[in-house]
Specification:
CATH topology of the largest domain: Rossmann fold
Helix content: 25-40%
Strand order of the largest sheet: 1-3-2-4-5-8-9
Distance between the termini: 33 Å
Number of domains: 2
Number of strands: 9
Structural class: alpha/beta
Shape: globular
């Protein structure tokens, strides 16, 4: 698969992999700041942004997409950073291609099965979001504000709705709005997105010492909990865990300076 990407700067390669509902657009501010020291590649994962759609949406497939991207751009070795779903893609890729990893940065996601949280599971949150996205009738929507108001009736977070709206664009042929996301396929594969690349997946790869690893978590986010530190250090015994204060799951947007500070300290 030929992934859409953006690039900034010159120097040692740094590849940024966005999360669920994200795209390379979400990382342009961070990418431009890092481009003073690195050649920064920001990709759109399959079924997201301007990359091709596919009926397959698994971490194995996204890992293979990343491997193909490295080959196409003749990247022998890079720093790889992944956020949320992209963090799991990055961990999967790094575990199978350790020789291509200089350093690994995992942003606000743990190598665990999020179904195990039961009622607190991210699954129900994302199922509700994707169902709301799927049910919207864009032929009746004449403005982005109407799309926003519809989503706010279904989704109990103005922040999430604002993030989703970045995926809305007008189709040239019909002038109707549409999603840049392959919503139906993401919903069909939500089980894999939520549960994949977990502690059990790493069993035959333990422990991993091949490359330095940094986990960055938002202090207000529940994606990495204190009890997850044990899982992280079982897989990556030498991993560093950094916490960004006053930040939730989209910590790079909420606290960009502190986020970049944590990254730069690790990449020195």
């Amino acid at each position: 698969m030929n992934l859409f990407f953006r690039e900034e700067g010159e120097g040692f390669p740094l590849v940024i992999v966005h999360g669920l509902y994200g795209s390379s657009d979400n990382w342009l501010t961070v990418g431009k700041k890092l481009s003073a020291r690195f050649k920064v590649y920001m990709i759109d994962q399959r079924n997201h942004g301007r990359s091709p759609n596919s009926d397959v949406h698994s971490y194995e497939a996204m890992k293979d997409d990343l491997s193909t991207f490295f080959d196409q751009h003749r990247i022998e070795k890079a720093i790889v950073m992944g956020h949320s779903m992209g963090g799991k893609t990055a961990m999967c890729f790094a575990a199978d291609y350790p020789e291509r990893i200089e350093k690994l940065i995992v942003v606000d996601i743990a190598p665990k099965n999020y179904f195990l949280l039961n009622d607190e599971s991210q699954y129900f949150l994302h199922k509700n979001i994707l169902q709301a996205m799927l049910e919207i009738d864009f032929s009746k929507m004449e403005s982005r504000k109407e799309v926003e108001n519809y989503l706010l009736q279904k989704i109990d977070s103005a922040q999430i709705v604002q993030f989703l709206l970045k995926n809305v664009h007008r189709k040239k042929e019909t002038h109707h709005f549409e999603w840049r996301l392959n919503v139906s396929v993401l919903l069909d594969n939500l089980d894999e997105i939520i549960s994949g690349v977990n502690e059990r997946w790493f069993e035959d790869r333990l422990p991993i010492f091949n490359y330095p690893v940094l986990f960055i978590k938002g202090s207000n986010s529940n994606y990495i909990l204190p009890e997850d530190f044990k899982i992280i250090h079982r897989i990556y015994p030498e991993a560093t865990i950094s916490e960004i204060p006053n930040a939730g799951h989209w910590l790079h947007a909420e606290q960009p300076e502190l986020f970049l500070e944590a990254m730069n300290e690790f990449m020195q």
